[in-house]
Write a structure and sequence with these properties.
It contains nine helices and ten strands. With about 300 residues, it is α/β, with parallel strands linked by helices. Strand 2, helix 5 and strand 3 form a beta-alpha-beta unit.
Length: about 300
């Protein structure tokens, strides 16, 4: 039995007619599920995304231009700031935090496979003396920071009026366990309504030629869309509406396995506010030109 003409025509139009090659082997339920999956994935823009991704991998954008070094005027070294200027930025940053205008985004969709476990990375025992996990360490830092911000403006012992909103992006593989873990540990002292858990999206798996792959005869293989999917996930999950209700104006974003991350760094926030920056990134200088680490570039 052939697939519906309209469905097959739409797939052929975007170069993915091979998806239904096993249609005749499927049950009615499997056909229905595959049709729904095809519609939900929006394959129309897949070719464009694939071409953009392969162009980026080659080191050039679609215009053919190579990336350029970031201009010196767009880089600020912490060491170049005077003590007075640093204090000014920190004071500004703490003020914004105390007013509830700063939120934190945590990218935590991965499992700890490199650590020898399938648990979410944030739930893995780090073998520290206190038996703390990454989630606990980071939750406690948020607690300490919001208390510090409240006392910076209202004096010692001043209660937190506007807690820091913590938006944690998870995946299908980590969501259920992570949510249970937070509940079992009473959100590590945070208020439940200041922690917003949401899932990252998924994309179909494709071959090197950009053809969609099947997991089974009646199911398209999918994989998490990575950290780059954060923008769509924030929109689709309701995070943006939550931020608007809470009055959040600035966001600090980091990855769960960065144990040294200075979460919602008041200095950085104050610096961005003072210069009206839309985006600011923290980085370390390379130890040598040949050090094999990522770099920031301009396109």
């Amino acid at each position: 039995m052939a697939p519906p003409v309209e469905l097959q025509s739409a797939l052929e139009k975007v170069g993915q007619g091979q998806i239904t090659r096993c249609w005749g082997d499927l049950s009615e339920d499997e056909r229905s599920q595959l049709s729904v999956q095809i519609e939900s994935l929006g394959l129309g823009g897949l070719r464009e995304k694939f071409e953009e991704a392969t162009a980026t991998k080659s080191g050039r954008d679609l215009s053919g231009e190579a990336p350029k070094p970031v201009s010196a005027g767009r880089v600020c070294s912490r060491a170049s700031l005077t003590a007075a200027r640093r204090e000014e930025y920190v004071r500004t940053g703490l003020g914004l935090i105390a007013e509830g205008k700063v939120g934190v985004i945590l990218l935590a969709g991965g499992q700890g496979t490199r650590l020898g476990t399938k648990l979410p990375k944030g739930c893995v025992d780090l073998q520290l003396p206190g038996k703390k996990t990454l989630f606990q360490i980071q939750a406690e830092r948020i607690l300490d920071l919001q208390k510090l911000a409240a006392e910076a403006g209202g004096g010692k012992g001043h209660a937190v009026q506007k807690p820091i909103m913590w938006y944690i992006m998870l995946s299908d593989a980590t969501r259920a366990y992570t949510e249970s873990y937070f509940r079992e540990n009473s959100w590590f002292g945070l208020k439940e309504d200041q922690v917003f858990l949401f899932n990252q999206g998924k994309l179909p798996c494709v071959s090197e030629e950009g053809k969609v792959l099947l997991e089974t005869k009646g199911k398209i293989a999918e994989s998490p869309d990575g950290n780059g999917g954060i923008y769509k996930a924030l929109r689709d999950s309701g995070c943006l509406e939550s931020m608007e209700r809470a009055g959040v104006e600035a966001l600090d974003c980091y990855c769960v396995d960065n144990i040294l991350a200075k979460i919602a760094d008041p200095l950085l926030i104050g610096y961005c506010k003072s210069f009206g920056a839309d985006l600011c990134c923290r980085t370390l200088a390379k130890s040598s030109p040949g050090e094999r680490v990522g770099v920031f570039v301009e396109r």
